[in-house]
């Protein structure tokens, strides 16, 4: 590509690493013309840039390894997004995988992800899911509560070698993020209250099929402040000391969960992964030394920060509505593929894919196609004058969008493509109307 004929995109930190704007103002990602892909594959279309995903995986792995002398592992939190192609990529980059359901585990195993590198989370794992995990040879089950511990102890009563587990604690740390994505406070539904640790240890004493190797906590999502992580390490090490001193359990691994923040709009700054790794390395080294532990293994579980920036959602403007002080652009997607704005007021920005850096002319509401007044993707998007048929590109759309997608209004879920080095591959086809009746059962009595 001739570099004199292209320029960087405004607010480049919100876009995939390979994003440029060509001499005609067209958005190019992974060497591909985004609007052309939208017309070829149809919209809504979710586009992922392979280089951005791989780069995020490498940044996390190298930063942790560089900043902590003990063993480190990065597990991708697959709740942010999971499909077969992505599973292959995560495996290829040497990360582990976190799953929170039998479905996520199934996809990972079907894609050939090594079970020993998978951890299973969840506050309400069913017996069937625990059995599925145990049968798969999963690396670790992160136990969330005493009932789960009792069930798991029963399921593994005659198991040899024992199943490695970690205990998730609620560390009683409040973070500066939206209440819906806050998980480390004392009244969170997730994790053992700190005062239940002794009861867990007692139960484990008579659970020969389980081997406690780690402690886990997760503070929440969209965190930009590093200090809560240091407080979390303090609490986790305090709990590890208690388990050692009172009950004789030797903890080998500390898992601090995920949560690293991602900028969604121009006013938000990128998160410094290296600074977090430094702070974690420093805090864990100090706490291990202070409490007489060897350097414990450090595990981190980023989801959003691996996949959010790599994903761009593409929509077609289907219709407009003009009021005296307001203009709506109705798009062919919305809360069905991205529930975040409706769920917790998440903010996004957008550009026109064929006039990517063009001067702003108006502020418009980007309204979804679903039958809910709350289906507004962006309340006030500064854009050049847009019209029906234009392709709208929304950056930072990779995390917690498709993984939360629904077929509300019986609208098929989008297709997904991966771009890299000028080529594109379809990694998930668009849902069809046939897919939507595939589960319907018509009894012979009801047949017409
Ligand atoms: C246990 C656990 N680990 C990791 C994550 C990933 O968080 P994030 O995507 O914010 O990095 C989550 C998200 O909810 C989680 O619950």
TrEMBL record:
GO molecular function: diaminopimelate decarboxylase activity; pyridoxal phosphate binding
GO biological process: lysine biosynthetic process via diaminopimelate
Record's keyword annotation contains NAD: no
Pfam families linked to this entry: Orn_Arg_deC_N
Signal peptide, first to last residue: none
Function: Specifically catalyzes the decarboxylation of meso-diaminopimelate (meso-DAP) to L-lysine.
Reactions performed catalytically: meso-2,6-diaminopimelate + H(+) = L-lysine + CO2
Domain Orn/DAP/Arg decarboxylase 2 N-terminal: 51-308
Modified residues (N6-(pyridoxal phosphate)lysine): 79
EC number, as in UniProt: 4.1.1.20
Self-association and partners: Homodimer.
Record protein name field: Diaminopimelate decarboxylase
UniProt keywords, alphabetically: Amino-acid biosynthesis, Decarboxylase, Lyase, Lysine biosynthesis, Pyridoxal phosphate
Entry annotated with the keyword Transport: no
Main EC class the enzyme belongs to: lyase
Record-linked InterPro entries: Ala_racemase/Decarboxylase_C, DAP_deCOOHase_LysA, De-COase2_N, De-COase2_pyr-phos_BS, Orn/DAP/Arg_de-COase, PLP-binding_barrel
Organism: Roseiflexus castenholzii (strain DSM 13941 / HLO8)
Binding site for pyridoxal 5'-phosphate: 259, 301-304, 400
Binding-site list for substrate: 304, 340, 344, 372, 400
Family membership: Belongs to the Orn/Lys/Arg decarboxylase class-II family. LysA subfamily.
Gene field: lysA
Catalytic-site annotation from UniProt: 371
């Amino acid at each position: 590509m001739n570099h004199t004929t292209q320029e960087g995109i405004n607010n480049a930190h919100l876009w995939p690493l390979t994003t440029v704007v060509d001499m005609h103002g067209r958005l190019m990602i992974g060497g591909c013309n985004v609007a052309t892909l939208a017309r070829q594959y149809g919209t809504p279309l979710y586009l992922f840039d392979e280089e951005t995903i791989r780069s995020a995986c490498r940044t996390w792995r190298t930063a942790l390894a560089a900043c902590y002398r003990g063993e480190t592992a990065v597990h991708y939190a697959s709740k942010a997004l999971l499909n077969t192609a992505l599973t292959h990529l995560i495996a290829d980059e040497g990360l582990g995988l976190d799953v929170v359901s039998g479905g996520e585990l199934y996809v990972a195993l079907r894609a050939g992800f090594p079970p020993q590198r998978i951890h299973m989370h969840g506050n309400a794992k069913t017996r069937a899911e625990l059995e599925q995990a145990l049968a798969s040879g999963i690396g670790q089950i992160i136990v969330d509560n005493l009932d789960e511990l009792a069930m798991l102890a029963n399921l593994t009563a005659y198991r040899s070698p024992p199943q490695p587990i970690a205990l998730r604690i609620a560390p009683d740390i409040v973070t500066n993020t939206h209440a819906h994505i806050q998980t480390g406070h004392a009244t969170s539904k997730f994790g053992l209250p700190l005062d239940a640790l002794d009861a867990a240890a007692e139960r484990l004493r008579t659970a020969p099929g389980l081997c406690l190797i780690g402690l886990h906590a997760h503070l929440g999502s969209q965190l930009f402040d590093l200090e809560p992580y240091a407080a979390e390490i303090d609490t986790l090490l305090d709990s590890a000391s208690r388990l050692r001193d009172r009950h004789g359990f030797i903890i080998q691994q500390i898992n601090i969960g995920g949560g690293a923040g991602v900028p969604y709009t121009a006013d938000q700054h990128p998160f410094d992964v290296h600074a977090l790794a430094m702070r974690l390395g420093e805090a864990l080294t100090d706490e291990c030394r202070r409490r007489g532990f060897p350097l414990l293994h450090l595990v981190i579980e980023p989801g959003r920060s691996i996949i959010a920036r790599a994903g761009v959602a593409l929509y077609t403007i289907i219709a407009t509505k003009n009021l005296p002080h307001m203009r709506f652009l109705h798009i062919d997607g919305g809360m069905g593929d991205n529930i975040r704005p409706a769920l917790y007021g998440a903010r996004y920005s957008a550009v026109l894919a064929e006039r990517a850096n063009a001067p702003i002319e108006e502020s418009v509401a980007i309204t979804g196609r679903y039958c809910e007044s709350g289906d507004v993707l962006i309340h006030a998007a500064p854009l050049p004058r847009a019209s029906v048929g234009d392709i709208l590109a929304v950056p930072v759309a990779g995390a917690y969008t498709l993984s939360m997608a629904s077929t509300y209004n019986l609208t098929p879920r989008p297709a997904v493509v991966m771009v890299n080095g000028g080529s594109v591959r379809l990694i998930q086809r668009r849902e069809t109307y046939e897919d939507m009746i595939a589960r319907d059962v018509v009894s012979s009595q009801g047949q017409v």
